[in-house]
Each structure stands twice: as structure tokens, then as C-alpha cells.
């Protein structure tokens, strides 16, 4: 199960191709709307003001409402790609932006928006994962979901999954939402940006998905998350907190009634344990800022860079559905690989229930 995307933020369209998609998955163009709206800009004042309808056209791989087994191709036409900045951006490198490394690698300067380095590219990952989420849920009872776990220095005081979809921040503590709104309003007015942390989990994953050395489940998840624009860190389970732990504290003890903790994040030796899969992803602050910064132009001359236009003060606010998407894509791929190698083998040892201790974020 392999997804590739194409298109630029300010090109005519963006799209994706899903190869290796099993036949018989019911899918219609309307099914994409929910998750695409969760990720989109222009829905609240806390994200970029660009407004795209993100209407999906299914070009291939679906007949009479079901996948056929041939490549699934999806397309979204860009309708609000405008910028007054092309001439200036064509000559300047923004500090902290990929336009410098793209130039160093390719020697081509495409100044039309962020191009492939724009968050716009992540739209098609979310679209592709609508298919994966449906297959995981219907075939295996696996549910993937996420929430924001930090904006700047603010962390949730409570973790209530039932409120996450009710606020613009995917925040698990309803009482803190007014504080976040004030914080984001002040940040936006200041012209600066801030980083964020997203927690993403998968419940219902059976033991056995993942490979022991090449293609470890945790390695695939880390690579998938790091492939998202602006991601600078990924943790599985306790992640970097493991550094300060004792083995007696970190090990997840077992009983016939279930695992007694989930410090491992549901993965041991690259293979799922049957517990909740738990990952945490760090997003850097957006680099396109209207506050002046020191940069270079394409001739190597020092310039003061000021980026105008529509940009996210915290791109992490929109990242929860993107992290869910990448986790779902990896899990579907690993589920199919497991089935290809092991078929129905498994269940060879007593299976330990996931237990109540899921490793809540
Ligand atoms: C982005 C800049 C803005 C965002 C865009 C990401 O676009 P523009 O350059 O057209 O003003 O709106 O994000 C999206 C359009 C999206 O769908 O995620 C950037 O610089 O990365």
C-alpha cells in the first residue's frame, strides 16, 4: 500500500496515487469532505486565511462506489492560489524555510507559494488516508485519532477525548480553549509563529503488525511523521522521557487480565503488542513571517526578508488530521504486509488483552 502525491501549493491542482489498494473498499467523493475540512485553512481565524473548497475528484481505481484494485487517483483543483509576492520571493531565501535547500539541490527557483514544501501538500495525504482509515476500521476494528498536546508552552490540564472535535485546536481540555484563543490572537497580532505537539493513537491494532529489523512498525511511523512538512521530532510511547526512567518503571508488566502499563507505545522490537499505538510529533514554528529576518538573496547578498501574504501562525493547529493520516497509511501497509507473509498465522501464544492502561497522552 503506497501513496505518492503530486502538485504544488500554487499550481493548478494537487493529487495523489494510491498503489496496492485492495479491491472492494466502498468509497465516494463525499467521503473525503470530513477529514479534509478538519485539516483545511480558512475555517477559523487561527489558521491561514486561504480558502480552498478541497473538493475531491476520483480519477481512477473506483467503479460503482468501490475500489477495483487498480491505482486510486485523487485530484483537488486549487482555486484560491494567489500571491503578490512572486517577484520578491523569487530572489530571496526566507530564514528557516526550505526554499534555500530546494534551490541548493535543484538550482530552480519556483516562487509560486511554498510549492511542494507548503502545508498544502498534506491535503492529499489526508485524502488518501480516508481510504486507509475506513479499511482499518471495517476490516480490523482499528480506530486512529489524535489531539493537540502542546502549543508553545501551553499543555492540556485534562485529557478528554470527547471534546477534541468541538474546538478549533483539537484540544482535549475544553476549559482551556479561551486561554488558547487569547494566546493565538496575541501571537497573530505580533506577527510571530509558534510550534506545537500532536499526539496520535491507534486503538485495536492486533499483536504482530510490523517487521523485526527492516520495516519496523515504529521506524515506519517515525519516517512517515518526519515526512510531514515542519516536523522536527517524533516519539513512540514514552519516547525521550525513557532516558530518565529505570527498567523497572519502563517495562510494561503483564497479567492474564492485560498489560499493566504502556510505556512502549504499543510496539516492542518493531512489532505491535496489541496495545494502543502511541506517537507524539513535534512541529516547528512556521518560518514565513512578516517580522523582518536576516536572509540572503540568490546572489548571496544579505537582505532583510519580510514575508507577506496568508500564513499559519501555528501550523501544528492543523496537524492532528495529518498525523492521523500518516499513522493510518503506515498501519494499513503493515497490515497488508503481515497478511502477505503470515496469513492467518498468529495467536500462537496466549494473547494478552490490551488492558486498561493504554498509555494516555
Ligand atoms: C502556506 C501558505 C498559505 C497556506 C498554505 C500553506 O498559502 P498561500 O501561500 O497561498 O497563502 O494557506 O496552506 C494551505 C493552502 C493548505 O491547504 O494547507 C505555506 O506557506 O506553507
Could you describe the 3D structure shown?
By secondary structure, this protein is of the alpha+beta class. The chain is built from eight helices and 16 strands. The protein has helices at about 35-40, 85-90, 100-105, 120-140, 175-190, 215-225, 245-250, 320-340, and strands at about 1-5, 15-20, 55-60, 60-65, 65, 70-75, 145-150, 195-205, 230-235, 255, 260, 265-270, 270, 275-285, 295, 300-305. The model has no long low-confidence stretch (mean pLDDT about 95). Strand 10 (about 255) and strand 11 form a beta hairpin. Strands 1-2-6-3 form a four-stranded antiparallel sheet, with helices on one face. Ligand EPS binds next to loops.
Please describe the topology of this protein:
Blueprint lengths: L1 E6 L5 E7 L13 H7 L16 E5 L1 E2 L2 E2 L4 E6 L8 H4 L9 H8 L15 H19 L2 E9 L25 H14 L5 E8 L13 H10 L4 E6 L10 H4 L3 E2 L2 E2 L7 E2 L2 E2 L4 E7 L9 E4 L5 E4 L14 H23 L19
Antiparallel strand pairs: 1-2, 2-6, 3-6, 4-5, 7-8, 8-14, 9-14, 10-11, 12-13, 15-16
Helix pairs in contact: 4-8, 6-8
This protein binds ligand EPS.
Amino acid at each position: 500500500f503506497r501513496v505518492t502525491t503530486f502538485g504544488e501549493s500554487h499550481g493548478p491542482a494537487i493529487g495523489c496515487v494510491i498503489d496496492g489498494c485492495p479491491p472492494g473498499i466502498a468509497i465516494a467523493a463525499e467521503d473525503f469532505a470530513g477529514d479534509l475540512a478538519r485539516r483545511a485553512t480558512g475555517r477559523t481565524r487561527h489558521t491561514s486565511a486561504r480558502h480552498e473548497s478541497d473538493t475531491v475528484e476520483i480519477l481512477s481505481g473506483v467503479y460503482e462506489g468501490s475500489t477495483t484494485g487498480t491505482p486510486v487517483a485523487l485530484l483537488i483543483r486549487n482555486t484560491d492560489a494567489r500571491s503578490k509576492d512572486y517577484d520578491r520571493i523569487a530572489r530571496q531565501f526566507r530564514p528557516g524555510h526550505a526554499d534555500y535547500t530546494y534551490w541548493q539541490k535543484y538550482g530552480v527557483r519556483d516562487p509560486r507559494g511554498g510549492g511542494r514544501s507548503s502545508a498544502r501538500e498534506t491535503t492529499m495525504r489526508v485524502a488518501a488516508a480516508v481510504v486507509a482509515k475506513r479499511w482499518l476500521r471495517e476490516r480490523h476494528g482499528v480506530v486512529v485519532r489524535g489531539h493537540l498536546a502542546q502549543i508553545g508552552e501551553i499543555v492540556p490540564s485534562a485529557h478528554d477525548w470527547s471534546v477534541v472535535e468541538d474546538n478549533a485546536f483539537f484540544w482535549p481540555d475544553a476549559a482551556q480553549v479561551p486561554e488558547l484563543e487569547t494566546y493565538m490572537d496575541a501571537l497573530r497580532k505580533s506577527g510571530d509563529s509558534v510550534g506545537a505537539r500532536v499526539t496520535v493513537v491507534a486503538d485495536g491494532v492486533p499483536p504482530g503488525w510490523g517487521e523485526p529489523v527492516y520495516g519496523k512498525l515504529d521506524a515506519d511511523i517515525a519516517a512517515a511523521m518526519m515526512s510531514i512538512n515542519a516536523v522536527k521530532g517524533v516519539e513512540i510511547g514514552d519516547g525521550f522521557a525513557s532516558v530518565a526512567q529505570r527498567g523497572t518503571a519502563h517495562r510494561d508488566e503483564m497479567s492474564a487480565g492485560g498489560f499493566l502499563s504502556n510505556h512502549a507505545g504499543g510496539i516492542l522490537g518493531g512489532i505491535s503488542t496489541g496495545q494502543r499505538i502511541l506517537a507524539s510529533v513535534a512541529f516547528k514554528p512556521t518560518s514565513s513571517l512578516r517580522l523582518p529576518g536576516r536572509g540572503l538573496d540568490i546572489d548571496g547578498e544579505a537582505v532583510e526578508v519580510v514575508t507577506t501574504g496568508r500564513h499559519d501562525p501555528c501550523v501544528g493547529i492543523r496537524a492532528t488530521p495529518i498525523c492521523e493520516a500518516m499513522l493510518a497509511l503506515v498501519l494499513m501497509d503493515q497490515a497488508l504486509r503481515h497478511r502477505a507473509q503470515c496469513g492467518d498465522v498468529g495467536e500462537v501464544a496466549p494473547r494478552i488483552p490490551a488492558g486498561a492502561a493504554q498509555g494516555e497522552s
